[in-house]
Amino acid sequence: RAKEQGRNRFCYYSDDLEYQFKQRQSVEKLLRHAIEQDKIEVFYQPKLALLTEKIIGVEALVRLRDDENKLISPLDFIPLAEETGLIHALGQSVLKQSCIAAKEWADKGHNIKVAVNIAAKQFTDGNFCNLVADTIEQAGLASELLELEVTESALMHDFEEIKIMLSKLSDLGLTIAIDDFGTGYSSLSYLKLFPVDVLKIDQSFVRDMLTDTQSMDIVRTITSLAHTLNLQIVAEGIEEKQHLNSLIDLGCELGQGYYFHKPMPKEEFDKLLG
Ligand code: C2E
Ligand code: MG
Ligand code: MG
Ligand code: MG
After folding, report:
1. 10 Å Cβ neighbour count for 8?
2. Ligand 1, residues 78, 83, 238, 242: which to mutate, most atoms within 8 A of Cβ?
3. What does the alpha-carbon distance between residue 220 and residue 250 come to, in Å, rounded to a whole number?
4. What is the rounded (10 degree) CA torsion for 84, 199, 189, 145?
5. d(Cα 130, Cα 220) in Å, to the nearest integer?
6. Where do the EAL domain residues begin and end (predicted)?
């Protein structure tokens, strides 16, 4: 629901163009400052094996603060970051922090895989694969401990180009996840064409699966598709014990959601790991 609100937030003021314009300008300014001053923050949300509830990974989620130190939702600045090109610096900061964190956890004996969201626009950087390779290397991270989350729509932008890039990235040893699976482009042929390892069931299906049979059917179908294609499956947005039980019944192995943990600063996750 927060996500829907985030997406529609600007619409409430659609009759007030000046407000919209100022809003955009102030977010862009915050973003530029945060990048210049190295103040892009990353929160981590644990990802668990549903049967054992053991933490096996985290998703890295970017955070930005306003002048009053309040967190601004990525839904309110990622699109702007893409339009302005700031996404390249922002994405690099998140990737770097995530790789360094995962290396630190590994050194402490915890094999925590870190999943980093990549925006469509980042693939327009011809040097993106090299950047990823360099970042992993400089952090000293085993590439198996990095996952990149890409949305279906991002893949459809420049099919051939992205196919080559994902293959290069996959050859580095990291894994590729399709984020928000089921909400985007509906052709499944790309699952064969791209080196995909993981499907993340969109949280909207998980949220509604207990009350809406269609959502339940979609979760069941995606899970069985993943099994057929030998892909890992991650359920997003698990908020209730009943979500968890149903997902386990369907054979879904991995998941994340407020039922377990909300995204948290690194220090907090460090404590959780113990
Ligand atoms: P996403 O990649 O699908 O990330 C999952 C979102 O769902 C996160 O929102 C997370 O906080 C939220 N979430 C997790 N568990 C639950 C739950 O049980 N219930 C509910 N209602 N929500 C849950 P967040 O952090 O606000 O991020 C929103 C979106 O912004 C992300 O969706 C992703 O598309 C984008 N994003 C976040 N960080 C980055 C980043 O570093 N780079 C890029 N390119 N995009 C990012
Ligand atoms: Mg994601
Ligand atoms: Mg998602
Ligand atoms: Mg999502």
Report:
1. 11
2. 78
3. 6
4. 70
5. 38
6. 24-274
What is the Cα Rg of the chain in Å?
18
Residue 257 and residue 174: Cα distance in Å, rounded? Answer: 23
Give distance in angstroms: CA of 170 to centre of ligand 1.
Answer: 23
Q: Is the CB of 183 under 6 A from ligand 1?
A: no
Task: Give the ligand 1 atom nearest the CA of 118.
Answer: 44
DSSP 183: S
The residue whose CA has the least distance to atom 27 of ligand 1 is 74
Considering only CA atoms, which residue is closest to atom 38 of ligand 1? 61
- Asked if residue 92 has its Cβ within 6 Å of ligand 1, the reply is no
The whole-angstrom separation of Cα 6 and Cα 160 is: 32
Cβ-based neighbour number of residue 28 at 10 Å? 16
Q: What is the ipTM of this complex?
A: 0.97
**Structure token pair of residue 102:** 């995962």
Query: Taking the CB of residue 135, how many other CB atoms lie within 10 A of it?
Result: 19
Residue 1 has pLDDT above 50, yes or no: no
168, containing H or E segment: helix 159-172
Tell me how far apart the 2 most distant CA atoms of the chain are, in Å: 54
Dist. CA 137–CA 153, nearest whole Å: 29
Tens digit of each residue's pLDDT (9 = 90 or more) over 72-122:
999 999 999 999 999 999 999 999 999 999 999 999 999 999 999 999 999
| Average pLDDT, integer, range 197-218 | 96
46 lines ligand 1 (CB under 6 A): no
Q: Which among 102, 75, 66, 250 has a CA at the least distance from the CA of 175?
A: 102
Which pTM was predicted?
0.93
